[in-house]
Design brief:
Blueprint: H1 15-18, H2 25-32, H3 42-47, E1 53-56, H4 67-78, E2 88-91, H5 113-124, H6 130-142
Parallel strand pairs: 1-2
Helix pairs in contact: 4-5
Length: 147
Amino acid sequence: APFAHWRGKPTLWICALALIQSTDPDIVALQVGTGDDPSHAPFTLALKEADQILVVRNQAVDLYDRIWCCWELFIAYELNLVHKPGGLIVTGQPYAAGVATLVDITSAQASNSEDKRRILDHILSTNLQYDSVNELLTEVKNFVATH
């Protein structure tokens, strides 16, 4: 329990609970936006209000095989949450625990290929290149908590 000993409990954005998980492209489009810039998507705007981001990894799904999960961590990086003390909290067993694997954001999957194109285009329009984003994603994916 990452917050068991905290005096004040944080407000968390949990996309799997906050967004309706659907295969209907119209429902998904309403939540993530349909414009050319994913930085204006409703859930991206909500993330921009966060003081912390919690990454809950699991052994069933590699989060960083999904483009929107990569986008969330990219936004956290842009907001300086990744390097802010306490800004990034990583919990849960990593997918394929014990096997360090590299992340390649260009290989991430999306149910909508246009979403993937927009996200990759946006990242390239910033000062970061794919290699920098891949390093960050790989670091979080393979992070091992020490006690």
